[in-house]
Specification:
This protein is α+β, with helices and mostly antiparallel strands. The protein has 3 domains: 7-176 and 310-361, Bira Bifunctional Protein, Domain 2 (BirA Bifunctional Protein, domain 2, 2-Layer Sandwich), CATH 3.30.930; 178-305, Bira Bifunctional Protein, Domain 2 (BirA Bifunctional Protein, domain 2); 363-452, Anticodon-binding domain (Rossmann fold, 3-Layer(aba) Sandwich). The chain is built from 17 helices and 16 strands. It has helices at 16-35, 49-52, 57-62, 87-94, 104-113, 158-174, 185-194, 201-208, 211-225, 230-240, 246-257, 261-278, 343-352, 373-388, 402-411, 422-427, 445-452; strands at residues 39-40, 46-48, 66-67, 97-99, 122-131, 143-152, 178-184, 285-288, 302-308, 315-322, 336-342, 366-368, 393-395, 416-419, 430-434, 440-443. It has an 8-stranded mixed β-sheet with strand order 1-5-6-11-10-9-7-8. It has a 5-stranded mixed β-sheet with strand order 13-12-14-15-16. Helix 1 crosses helix 13. The protein is elongated and about 90 Å long. The two termini are 52 Å apart. The relative contact order is 0.12.
Length: 453
């Protein structure tokens, strides 16, 4: 009995209709990236585990897909290692490569490796697949695309502002109403200092980043489990739940963080960014969110997260400043900042809200019906002229019943059908049929090109 075909959980096949919509998203994002002067690069699907491990925190490391070494890898392992119960250590003996978890760490590796070929500041974009061994659920997949834009080699806060402008431009073009949440890891570090738990900054940021998902009670429980004192947790509550207008929040935060140099630095950076944003005519709403932490450990400054206002699906774009990610690859003191659009979640949002333009779903503009060899030969030259004019055209390959050919056009959402028989060939005309209205009219090839253009 033949095996029933299937694919791994958390992955998907994409039909032509879906791919057309996905490519619309990719093309829109790519156009905006290029509008702002970003250049494309690509990195391999897999990286050395030494490149990936330790960059995403303990939880991130657990979600890395590891690739078994090729050949008879078990024969090279000493027998006593098989009795070792440490699975993490054993896995390093049988695997030295992994699928990339994101595009930022491979980008930092790329910058360090190609430093002599790069002009700084370096503005790059990258649209590629990443993999995470996460639990599949709505809006969360094991294989998905990220669309990243980063600027590296500059400390200027103008870079953060430009990235927020890119976010605004992309989502305006796609028709998605969004809200941009801003915070700064330095503010979070300052908060950890003033509550007396500076050494617990990683645990605190990981916990409060889950506030939307698990609620305040579970965040507090996780903090307690990580060894954060009850007194510190109590001090933390009014800070992370601070509400009100920006002009009310900042004075309160300055009073709280006045004894923390790093916290005050984070506040200063955030206020500077927001002063610039106030003068820009952005359609996207933005604001300060002290619970925003972004789980990735390499962020050191501004952090950004974008959510859809109309679909509850989690973050659809995010990013932040990383001051020395390239340092682990031997290129110290090179600061960068970047954002990443989650194309798969953006697709889900647009599909749910029916935001894809109707024209996007029509890959072919006109189908020429095939009435036989003589007519097909005549149509080939016409189709060639249309294609040279940039009109997506098809000639049906077989001279089958017309009903079957029209059904093909319907199923592919082709808006026009061309009918060319004996009389049309004699007159040098094409009969154009509108598939929506059923209307038919005769025209010359040039008139047809003008009509469809």
């Amino acid at each position: 009995m033949a095996q029933k075909p299937s694919i791994p959980k958390g992955t998907r096949d994409f039909s032509p209709a879906v791919m057309i919509k996905r490519n619309y998203i990719f093309d829109t994002i790519r156009d905006v990236f290029q509008l702002y002067g970003y250049q494309p690069i690509e990195t391999p699907a897999m990286e050395n585990l030494s490149t990936l491990l330790g960059k995403y925190g303990e939880e991130g490391d657990k979600l890395l897909f590891k690739i078994l070494n090729s050949g008879d890898f078990l024969s090279k392992i000493p027998e006593d290692e098989f009795d070792d119960n440490e699975s993490a250590r054993f896995s390093t003996l049988i695997s030295d490569k992994g699928l990339k978890y994101d595009l930022t760490v491979p980008f930092a590796r790329y910058v360090a490796q190609h430093r002599n070929e790069i002009t700084f500041p370096f503005k790059r974009y990258q649209i590629q697949t990443v993999w995470r061994a996460d639990r599949p659920q709505k809006g969360r997949y094991r294989e998905f695309y990220q669309c990243d834009a980063d600027i590296i080699g500059s400390n200027s806060l103008l870079n953060e502002i430009e990235l927020i402008q890119i976010i605004d431009e992309v989502f305006n073009r796609l028709g998605i109403e969004t809200e941009v949440k801003l915070n700064n890891r330095k503010i979070l570090a300052g908060i950890s200092e003033v509550i007396g738990e500076a050494d617990k900054i990683v645990d605190i940021t990981i916990a409060i980043d889950k506030l939307d998902k698990i609620g305040l009670e579970n965040v507090n429980k996780e903090l307690k489990d990580k060894g954060v004192s009850d007194k510190a947790i109590e001090k933390l509550q009014p800070i992370i739940l601070l509400e009100g207008l920006l002009k009310e929040k900042f004075p309160k935060l300055m009073a709280v963080l006045k004894e923390s140099e790093i916290g005050m630095k984070g506040l200063e950076e955030t206020m500077t960014i927001m002063k610039y944003l106030k003068d820009l005519e952005l359609k996207t709403k933005w604001g300060l969110d002290l619970t925003l932490a972004r789980g990735l450990n390499y962020y050191t400054g501004a952090i950004i997260e974008v959510k859809s206002k109309n679909v509850n699906i989690g973050s659809i774009c995010g990013g932040g400043r990383y001051d020395d990610l390239t340092g682990v690859f031997g290129l110290a003191d090179v600061s960068g900042v970047g954002i990443s659009f989650g194309a798969d979640r953006i697709y889900d949002v647009m599909n749910e809200l029916n935001l894809f333009p109707e024209a996007v779903q029509k890959s072919t503009q006109i189908l020429f019906v095939n009435f036989g060899d003589k007519e097909a030969k005549y149509c080939l030259s016409v189709v060639s002229k249309l294609r040279k004019s940039g009109i997506n055209s098809e000639l049906f390959p077989d001279a089958v019943k017309m009903k079957k050919q029209l059904t093909y056009a319907d199923n592919k959402h082709i808006p026009f059908v061309a009918l060319v028989g004996e009389s049309e060939m004699k007159e040098g005309h094409i009969t154009l049929k509108n598939m929506d209205t059923g209307e038919q009219k005769k025209m010359t090839v040039q008139e047809l090109i003008t009509e469809l253009s």
